[in-house]
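Ticket #4471: complex job returned nothing on first submit. Input attached below:
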Amino acid sequence: MNNEDLFYKELASCPGLPSGQFDVICKKIHRRKIIRRLGITGTVSTVLIFTMLMVVNLRRFEKTAVQPEVAAELQIIQEYLNGEDLEDQIQIYAYFEEQ
Amino acid sequence: MEELDSVTLNKAICGDNKAFRALYDHYSPYIWRLLFRMTGNKPLAEELLQETFIRVHAALRKFKGDSLFSTWIYRIAHNAVLMNYRQHKKFKCHDPFEDQVASESHTDNYLNKQFISKVLAELSIEDRFLLVAREIDGLSFEEISLIYRTSAGTLRTRLSRLKDNIRNRFAETSFEKEAVA
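Support reply: We reran it on our side without changes. The output follows.
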């Protein structure tokens, strides 16, 4: 038998398959299943909590938000108190005098 | 390589644990030899064997029967090796023969064993896969081409060159021995 033949014989030979591998594989499969389920549960929980917080915040914002009509009145009052509306008033009076 | 009977295979696909055990018992010796020869490292081959069968278990339902089951499982093992190789850039090289094959070795000559081990270690993992899959396990070029995603003709040429290189390598050694004598 020459070296080349021996080479192919050696290539075909290898140590025996270690025992207990199947049990290790089953344990790992089981562990990965648990990790995957925990991951899915965690993700779903996070999404649900985030959505609930968003909804609660949105409702709170709607309750505390000022109505547009009230906001407009408040703006007019503020301008009156700060005297910012004087220029407009003068222009109106000037217009009526011209008339 | 003989295929597992279709009844057991279908049961395994449907999630039957006993059938999966039978599938493991049937294919694991081939996959073990392939992984051991590709990595040359027993602990790593064990780890990759586990990884291969975990992946097989996870993907069993995706097996459509487009190829032989052995081709499919070889591809998973091949990919597991390549992924590990990319992650670690290289394997801890082939361990010396005497530590790993010990009493199972077919050679009587220690120097021959060492030389054969050296030649094996010099091959790329792809070449080792090609050699084991084709020359030892007897997969057809068409089946291997499904794993490599290259044409059967290219693989034929590649294996032919590879075998020529190995032959030349052994011829050189014989020549050196004669010269020394």
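Chain A has a mean pLDDT of 86. Closing as resolved unless it happens again.
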